[in-house]
Design a protein that fits this description.
single chain, 149 residues, alpha+beta, SMI1/KNR4-like, 4 helices
Length: 149
Amino acid sequence: MKELTIRKSEKPITREELNLFIDTYNLKLPNSYIEFILKNNGGYSSESLFGSSIEEGVVIDSFFSIRPNLGDFSNNLGRLVNVKKILENNIKDKDLPFDIYPFGDGGGGTFLCISMNNESLGKIYKYYWDGSGLQYVCDSFEEFIEGLE
């Protein structure tokens, strides 16, 4: 998979912590994402556009981190958004479909997500908080990373 230059990552997460996180939330995540989060644990990529142009493509503002024992959902004080809090808020409020996993901020009230639905497992979607649903982006997390410019 393509190497990205990632800035301002959180403290690395161990494989054991990640496995516990995956088991706790009953997640189906692709190996390419697992390896990415073990290496980077979120952050800001120097390559952030997927697609031919800003108008037609998808932008990723940041990759979410996983902090098993820390709780802040907000991005205040320069901290990355913690996907654990997104999942916990979703369990409580049911704002996000349960068969998608948010891995990044797509800007403008959107999340970039990995499908955990058996029919579209591993595909990447953009989720709109305004209720307009999901927009297909590409077939895999690896394809998404490879396509960033």
